Amino acid sequence: MFQRIAVFLYTLSVSLLVPGIAMSQESDSLSYQLDDVVAIGKKSVSEETSSTPFQNVDRTEIDRLGLRELSDAVKRMSGVDVRDYGGVGGLKTVSVRGMGAKHTAVSYDGAVVSDARSGMVDLGRFSLENVSAVSLTIGQGDEISLRTARDYSLASMLSVKSNAIPAGYSSYVKMQGGSFGFANFVAYGGYSNNDRTFAASLCGNYLRSDGAYPFDLVNGNVVTKEKRSDSDVESVMFEGNVQATVFNGHLSAKLHYYGSERGLPGAVNLYNKENRERLWDRNFFAQTVYDFALSEAADMRVVAKYDHGYSRYKEINKNYAAGEQVDVNRQNEFYLSLAMANSRHGKFNYSVAADVAYASLENNFENSSSPRRFSSYTVLAMQYSFRRASLTASLLATYINDDVRSAASPAPYRRLSPALAFSLKPFEGSSLRLRASVKDSYRVPTFADLYYLRHGNTALKPERATLYNVGVMWSESYRGFLKSVGITVDAYYNSVRDKIVALPTMYIWRMMNFGKADIYGVDVNLSARIGISRRVALLADANYSWQRAMDVTDSSAKNYRDQLPYTPEHSGNLSFTVENPILNVSYMLSAVGERYMLPQNTVYNRMAGYFEHSFSLYKELALGSARLRLQGELLNVADNRYEIIRYYPMPGFQWRVSARLSF
To answer: How far is Cα of residue 3 from the mean position of the Cα atoms in its chain?
Structure first.
């Protein structure tokens, strides 16, 4: 099926390029950008002024560093732990400040991406081809205008924003190839009329990789050379977007489909070098966001979304009576959000939002629980701006009720969650800013946590957390050799009760409650821009995170005050880019300290830290009215063999080349 889709993508690209070439000869309008939304109470958020930690990776940085997946962009942020199970086909999840993947919401163009079954989003689903920015907000967040209530429900928010659709006709095709049978083909076409009242785009993305990379198998003092198996992946993604002015409001609609077949790379050791597990995923969602003005002082947003997910998991194993185990899951969610804000005038702004969602899960298990979940979120957020200070507060009410077919339904979950953030500019003539925030976070166990046949734990309690943060920010621009410099430092403390910890397997994770966890840490971000000459510039970025995440449930336990599993104490990133007229070059360094695979911090459970060095080279050329971008990447150039999760070896040295032709 995927081969036929690849042929269709090629045909689509040709049909898109023909009008693009014709229009590019008539009008030089490709630099003319369509506004993302009608300007209704939208306040931009800055890393240097936000009252809560905020980090952003924009399109420029995505291109110059050669980032391809959403997980690649997230790795550039401090305080973030991306857990990768190896290769293109491996599951990729993100944990922010030791809170776990299910405490991070992923929002795509204003609506949260949901997974009622597992509660966490596989970042490997998302390409960065049609993305203008990826941002991470920890805690309250400064932007309160017209946010959905569910945005406030978790400890952090990873937001993905699509590219604006250029005026006129636009199109591009992109081809990539690389190590381990990696191939990727992308086709895009878009149109916007000149008065910006209508725009539409269509993007298709095909990817495949055999994932057969070499790794070292260690058995005591003996090291053998092996090759990874069952790590292949083939996927296709289609996305259509429409933006239009409707009844003096702005309507954005999105249709998104993602389908994949992949081998699940299992744990490898002396006696188990191969894994016979496969996973088929089909995900589809349709969402609509409509912004309009209620009056001169108040705005309204309506968000409606339908999300459907299908997964089929198969394991061939002689331990099963039939010789194999096949699990089929189907989930559906209907979601509606209404938000109102008065954020266009005055120093005092507020926003009110109410969300409802209905989710269901069906599977082929005998005596399946077939859970249904009704969720309601209501939030009131307020913001007051002084001359050199701002105060933001919110109160979220959560109500979640499960209906289970084959067992007694649990009692409804209820919670009031307040949050408060403060930002101060102490000196009039300086860019120095101080910030402090506190947030209550409440995570209800997911369907898989509670009801999954072989691994569910119905005794799990909801996870409650209080997040504290204090920070300092400073940035300055200059006209000389040093063009700009910026620094942010944040210290935080997360107090977590009934923390839900995942002990990983590839398909579904085994869940358990720790009674209490204390998480301390410091995040540091540095950036500098240097003008070496009139046409040569050096861009430097660095971040460092220190984190102590400890189980403090029982002082008599063997793992009391030990580091939580798979949480490094030290991690960081460093990147340099030299931009010049001949060839732009970027260097990236990622470093992660030692971790422990199990709650007890013993020598046997310790995992060594690792470094990864990568280079990216790119050049843009003008071909008449078209633009050709050539890029090459050398990843893990030192061929460092390491594991992020024990017994799941990561690829060593890799290369990729790409060509993108835009019209």
So the answer is: 28
Q: Where are the domains of the chain?
A: 2-662
CA distances from 303 to 111, 175, 455 (A): 7, 35, 34
Residue 185's contacts (CB-CB under 8 Å, 6 or more residues apart) are 6, 9, 10, 173, 174, 175, 176, 205, 206, 207
CA 631 from centre of chain? 24
Residue pair 123/93 in contact by the 8 Å Cβ criterion: yes
Q: Is 540 left (phi over 0), alpha (psi -120 to 50) or beta?
A: beta
Task: Report the CATH number of the 2-662 domain.
Answer: 2.40.170.20
Q: Distance between CA 39 and CA 487 in Å, rounded?
A: 30
Contact between 324 and 317 (Cβ < 8 Å): yes
For 475-485, b/e burial (b = at least 16 CB within 10 A) is beeeeeeebeb
74-78: average pLDDT: 86
Closest CA to 309 of 285, 328, 287, 283: 283
Identity at 61, one-letter amino acid code: E
The amino acid that residue 64 corresponds to is R
CB 51 within 8 A of CB 154: no
Give me the phi and psi of 10, to 5 degrees please: -65, -45
Amino acid at the residue 563? Q
| Amino acid letter, residue 208 | R
pLDDT digits (tens, 9 = 90+) for 267-277: 776 656 566 78
Rounded CA separation 263/210 (Å): 9
pLDDT digits (tens, 9 = 90+) for 586-604: 999 999 999 998 888 999 8
| 104-108 and 156-162 beta bridge pairing | parallel
